[in-house]
Amino acid sequence: MLLNNKKILILSWEYPPNIIGGLSRHVHGLSEEFVKMGNDIHVMTAQTENTEIYERMGGVHIHRVKPYHEKDQNFITWIAGLNIAMLEKAVELARSHSFTLIHAHDWLVGAAASAIKEALNIPLITTIHATEYGRNNGIFTELQKFIHEKERSLISCSNHVIVCSEYMRAEVIRLFSVG
């Protein structure tokens, strides 16, 4: 699929200046490159302290949402609240923007990505940066099982899956029976 002259909604739980790991930097660089290719890029991410709800940087439209239960110490509850807020904001944005596709980054935005795909009836591309299995050298706890199933669900509802290395490609094929 050629990516030029598209209106792409990118979902990522972190985006600069909120940098937890490499995902934020990856999505930032990718978004600006997509703009250079002639695409209209809208990144949706979590709002953190001292960040604007909306800004445009490097040609990228950045929409930040406050997760429901934003002060909750339970990460899964926080992620659920983020996904609900992302879905609501995407539906609002779709009233004035005709998105061509959604690009989700990892399981943390998977529930929103799946619901937005269904609501807007547009393709979903997912980049898997890491798997819960790979982070832990196996699945051992209930939390790990939960995350693993969220990864499986996101991958199964995606039209295309992207990975960042041959190693990840083999891991995703082996763990989720995709090819």
Keywords:
20% strand, 179 residues, alpha/beta, globular, 7 strands, 7-stranded mixed sheet
Summarize model confidence as the mean pLDDT.
95
Helix content: 40-55%
Q: How many β-strands, per DSSP?
A: 7
Cα radius of gyration in angstroms: 16 Å
Distance between the termini: 17 Å
Percent of residues in β-strands: 15-25%
Overall outline: globular
Described by strand count, sense and barrel closure, the largest sheet is: 7 strands, mixed
Structural class: alpha/beta
The arrangement of helices and strands along the chain is: EHEEEHEHEHHEH
Unreliable stretches (pLDDT < 50, length at least 5) are none
Strands of the widest sheet, in order across it, are 3-4-2-1-5-6-7
Question: How does the SSE layout of this entry go?
Answer:
Elements: E1 7-11, H1 22-36, E2 40-46, E3 54-57, E4 60-65, H2 75-94, E5 101-105, H3 110-120, E6 124-128, H4 132-136, H5 142-157, E7 160-163, H6 166-176
Parallel strand pairs: 1-2, 1-5, 2-4, 5-6, 6-7
Antiparallel strand pairs: 3-4
Helix pairs in contact: 2-3, 3-5
Give me a quick take on this structure.
By secondary structure, this protein is α/β, with parallel strands linked by helices. Helix content is 44%, strand content 20%.
Task: Describe the 3D structure.
There is one protein chain. The protein has 179 residues and is an alpha/beta fold. Helices cover 44% and strands 20% of the residues. The chain has helices spanning 22-36, 75-94, 110-120, 132-136, 142-157, 166-176; strands spanning 7-11, 40-46, 54-57, 60-65, 101-105, 124-128, 160-163. It has a seven-stranded mixed beta sheet. The longest helix has 20 residues, at 75-94. The mean pLDDT is 95.
